[in-house]
Amino acid sequence: MGLSLSLVTEDKEIPGIKQKPALLPFSSFTGSCILFDLETSSLKLDSEILQIAALYTVSGDKFDTYIQPNKSIAPSSSAVTGLTANGNILFYNGKPVHAYNAHNAVNDVNSLHKLMTLFKVEKQDVLEFSFSVESIVENMKYDKIVKVDAESFGDLVKGKYMSAQMAVRCAQSGLKKCHLDLAFHRKGFQGLLDLLSQRRQDGSPRVTKTAAVIKKITGYYDK
């Protein structure tokens, strides 16, 4: 084989199967509700908040503020929010927000409040979709790690030995490219098959058990 497996030394052992951390719900709720809505620069994990609005359901007090982003605003986000930026000025539908009271996020929280009142949303209903900050943070950390680890399969994806979706699935299970290098270095095709088809607790494969898909990956090492 003409391929160097120098990356094998990056990780000397293959990790066990990783699962996305569960979102942990609150067991009780004794306070009142504050509804809030965010407008962001994109849907990516590194997006920035452009506007935040909140409404206290007991008193009706409201909070609303705009935040000047440090990064560019995605066109897809501007199409939904109407918010754009030029230099140090934030615009709503082409007008500076400091001169135009857009309050698009405020409208959203007002609508949420009306819906909660109309459908008589109880505290137990809120609890069902409320999660601890700690578990949300752990989920976000997991997603960031998956993004980085999926990028390690870049050469395989570019060479069409593996799909981008497959790279993400590998990363979600705790694998990086160096782990595939290690598995192939040890047992070739069988090593990759054993690794990628490893059974989860529910009986499903870690990534895939389709021999043809795994055979295609071995083409990267056989080239």
TrEMBL record:
InterPro entries: PML_C, RNaseH-like_sf, RNaseH_sf
Domain named PML C-terminal: residues: 151-220
GO MF, one example: nucleic acid binding
Transmembrane segments annotated in the record for this chain: none
Pfam families attached to this UniProt entry: PML_C
Coiled-coil parts of chain: none
Name this polypeptide is given: PML C-terminal domain-containing protein
Organism for this UniProt entry: Mytilus coruscus
